[in-house]
Design brief:
two-stranded antiparallel sheet; 428 residues
């Protein structure tokens, strides 16, 4: 066992230096994401006792992502990509601190807080895509995203368990003459998160990352292949609009308190983490569609179970399927996206960030559409109906992405084949 672990560590060390630095930084930030994705929604649910406020927070957050993704393109002309990435990491911690320490949150404050956290995510994700694109190649991207997903999956198991235990134990405690409650527990968690973001920034400083050479990044017309990728991003966004909020909403309403979040996520998370690592380590680019399809099919099964049995059992089945779906989906999706960027950026001779920014718009439209569907059903039918059926609708639509992704893969690799043939002819 030790020999196998040593061999895997050596394989990791064989990867390019910048790729390793980025992975370690993302490993640290993986400790932060569960707090943003799960407990922020749970905190808002507890504070406002209304799922619609969680949806409003998410729309504000996604809007913040779009605004800063656009701003980031201009800033890349003057600032290093690593510095902007670091700023996004720190801003996520500062935004959470600001929200948690405000005594009386109103709707306007909730929207501002969501936009700030979205701004942090915009700087983080867009610069992360750019650095990952430039530090990896198609052959090692399965490994990169497999190992990264391994970190995120482990964090999604351990962090909710740890935070749930802390929140449960700290409520009603008296220490140094101070009476602690669950809200003070959230504040302590937020301060710890901020310290972790500082460590992530120090980690990133060890790498050397290049900015795009070409400065123009804002375009409105794209190659047909990229338009297909944007449609795939829209479908992914539909699911993302629910994945951040739906588990917390369902668990808080039908299962229990915050401690249950960690318990349910941890049931199958360990197996998922190992599976994702092995797939990333040994799967080839040709296996991406199979991985993609299995992940989406599991999500559909989970949503149907939740729709048929909207109770503790149905919610548990859905969350377990979601734990498998998300890393499987991302493991296949991001290498596909980056392969398309490799192809179309050369074909159109454009800045790679142009496609990363446009990709965020595709995700945004999907996220807002998904949340809009939930809000519409919650207000005009009922919240129970929305929690039961909106997920099924989104999951069925998501099935369309399987043949679309297959078509995208075929086109992007046929383009690569054409380029190879041209090079051969040039040598002759």
């Amino acid at each position: 066992m030790i020999a196998k672990l040593t061999a895997e560590f050596r394989f990791f060390l064989s990867m390019p230096h910048n790729m390793r630095v980025l992975l370690i930084t993302n490993m640290l930030y993986a400790l932060v994401l569960p707090v943003v994705e799960i407990f922020m929604a749970a905190y808002i649910m507890r504070y406002f006792a209304d799922t619609s406020y969680v949806a409003i927070f998410q729309v504000a957050m996604y809007t913040g992502i779009i605004i800063t993704s656009l701003t980031n393109g201009f800033l890349l002309k003057s600032f290093k990509v690593a510095h902007l990435y670091s700023f996004g990491i720190l801003l996520s911690g500062l935004s959470m601190v600001a929200m948690m320490f405000v005594k009386d949150i109103k709707l306007f404050g909730l929207i501002v807080s969501g936009a700030m956290i979205g701004a942090a995510s915009g700087f983080f994700w867009t610069n992360r895509y750019l650095m990952a694109l430039n530090t990896t190649q198609d052959e090692n991207r399965n490994y990169f995203f497999g190992l990264e997903s391994f970190f995120f999956t482990i964090a999604n198991i351990t962090i909710p368990l740890a935070i749930g235990a802390l929140l449960a134990s700290i409520d009603g405690m008296h220490l140094f003459g101070i009476e602690f409650n669950i809200y003070k527990g959230y504040q302590i968690v937020t301060l710890i998160v901020f310290l972790v973001t500082i460590l992530a920034v120090f980690s990133l400083a060890r790498g050397k990352f290049k900015n795009p050479v070409q400065k123009d990044f804002l375009y409105f017309r794209f190659d047909r292949l990229w338009n297909k990728q944007i449609l795939l991003a829209f479908l992914k966004g539909l699911v993302q609009g629910f994945l951040v909020t739906a588990p917390a909403m369902l668990i808080m309403k039908y299962v229990g308190k915050e401690g249950s979040l960690g318990l349910i996520q941890g049931i199958s998370g360990g197996l998922t983490a190992i599976l994702i690592y092995l797939l990333g380590r040994f799967a080839k680019p040709k296996h991406r569609i199979l991985i993609f399809g299995v992940g989406i099919s599991l999500f559909l099964i989970g949503t149907v179970a939740n729709g048929i049995e909207l109770s503790m059992f149905g919610v548990m089945v859905f969350v377990l399927c979601k734990v498998f779906f998300q890393p499987l989906h991302d493991l296949a999706y991001y290498p596909i996206m980056m392969k398309v960027i490799d192809v179309v950026s050369k074909r159109e001779n454009r800045n790679q960030y142009a496609y990363i920014l446009n990709h965020e718009f595709g995700l945004y439209l999907g996220r807002v559409s998904g949340l809009g569907l939930f809000i519409f059903l919650a207000f005009y039918v009922s919240e129970t109906f929305a929690l039961r059926y909106s997920l099924i609708i989104v999951a069925v639509l998501q099935m369309l992405s399987i043949p679309l992704a297959k078509n995208i893969m075929k086109d992007s690799y046929s383009e690569n084949h054409i380029e190879k043939e041209k090079r051969k002819e040039g040598k002759k």
